[in-house]
Amino acid sequence: MDLSPLTLDELTATGAHRKGHFRLSSGLHSGDYLQCALYLAEPVRAARAGRLIAGGLEDLGVAPELVVSPALGGVIIGHEVARALGLPFLFTERQEGVMTLRRGFAIAPGQRVVIVEDVVTTGKSTREVIQVLEEAGARVLAMASMVNRSGTANPFEPLPYHALLTVGFPVWEPESCPLCQRGVPIEKPGSRPLA
Ligand code: ZN
User: Cα separation of 107 and 90, whole Å?
Assistant: First the structure.
């Protein structure tokens, strides 16, 4: 299997990185949007990314028993990481705005867990996953993602964090967005273009 490092060019070539004017789920505006699902749509690529993240977690020196990802974005890559590590995989989901472990899934007290995401933007949803798992009695050992666009090397300190690709895409509050000021039509990915 090709285990060369993931590049931004690959994400762009597969449509997973787009330029434009976007309203991110955080409410911030940006000229760059990432939709890793388009990269992961090809299972061979997903398997490679999973192997690369698994290697990064091994380099961190952690010994997890379980991989957990937040649905939907983290599920494909989290599953591939779990496959590469030979571990089980569970996911969390948002129900009526509240992050929760998917119905029927359970955590054993003290179970050692790593959390895998596709893209870390603010780290907010990932921190909600940490909280859910810790409240369930898990020991969260480390975080990993395909892309870190948070603007900081590790938004999860003191937990260790590994990202395959760190990018420096600017984001703005809507009031100070230069694309808004130039009148560029904005798009909220997942819905039709906004006026
Ligand atoms: Zn804007």
Answer: 9
**What DSSP string runs through 9-72?**
HHHHHTTSEEEEEEE-TTS-EEEEEE-HHHHHTSHHHHHHHHHHHHHHHHHHT---SEEEEETT
Query: What spacing in Å lies between the alpha carbon of 121 and ligand 1's midpoint?
Result: 17
Q: How far apart are CA 53 and CA 67, in angstroms?
A: 12
DSSP 3-state of 168: coil
SS3 call for 182: coil
| C-alpha 195 to ligand 1 mean position (Å) | 11
Residue 84 Cα to ligand 1 midpoint, Å, equals 39
Could you list the mean pLDDT of each consecutive 10-residue stretch along the chain, which spans 195 residues?
92 96 91 96 97 97 96 95 98 92 92 97 90 96 97 95 96 96 90 51
Q: Which residue matches tokens 């090397």? A: 153
pLDDT in the model for residue 67: 98
Q: Domain 43-169 belongs to what architecture?
A: 3-Layer(aba) Sandwich (3.40)
Residue 114 Cα to ligand 1 middle (Å)? 35
CA of 191 to the centre of ligand 1 (A): 16
- Expressed in angstroms and rounded, the spacing between residue 190 Cα and the centre of ligand 1 is 17
Q: Whose CA is closest to 129, among 176, 91, 169?
A: 91
